Amino acid sequence: MLVEAGPGGPNPDVPADIGAWLDSWPVPFPSREAAAAFLGGGPVGAGWAAGLEERADGWWPRFDRDVMVRSLAENARRSFRDEWGQVVCPTLVVPAQSSFIPAREADEMLRQRPDTLALSIPGTGHDLHLEQPGILHAALAEFLQNSPEEERDHSKAARRARLAAS
Predict the structure, then answer these.
(1) Quick one: average pLDDT of 9-17?
(2) 17-55: per-residue pLDDT in tens?
């Protein structure tokens, strides 16, 4: 399952852009409510604010900013289109209605793997898992329930083989 993600292409500005966004956070936040308002309000702001931890001087991210930015660097260096084309298991792709994924990239993903199921959730942006968690959960549950049994058995066998090898 890919939610608001794709194989992309080189985009070296992503780590710096996200780093600048994280640097714009006025931490510590005086309250979780203030953080939610700053982070967009509504379910998106509340979702981001839920990831903060309270310390003596206010509310802080639970993650290290530099580690977060470095973790994005590999994804920004190159395209993963070749790897996408090699995926053989059933796949659900869920772009947002106002997606970061360009329409031509989504179209190419489906052209490259025509058995992929794509579902866009109306009225959502990049944080669709925060905006419409119930709809996303229902879509995933239905996708898993309707996956062919032989595919589920193959996935279970592959998972057991990986566990046995480790």
Answers:
(1) 89
(2) 999 999 999 999 999 999 999 999 999 999 999 999 999
Report the Cα 135 to chain-centroid distance in Å: 15
Residue 28: asked if its preceding bond is cis (omega within 30°), the reply is yes
* Residue 27 CB neighbour total at 10 angstroms: 17
Q: Which fold has domain 2-8+80-146?
A: Rossmann fold (3.40.50)
What is the residue extent of each domain of the chain?
A: 2-8+80-146, 13-71
DSSP-based three-state secondary structure for 117: strand
Closest CA relative to residue 87, chosen from 116, 67, 55? 116
Contact 8, 75 (CB under 8 A): yes
The tens digit of pLDDT for each residue in 76-101 reads 888 899 999 999 999 999 999 998 88
Q: Which residue has the tokens 């993650």?
A: 63
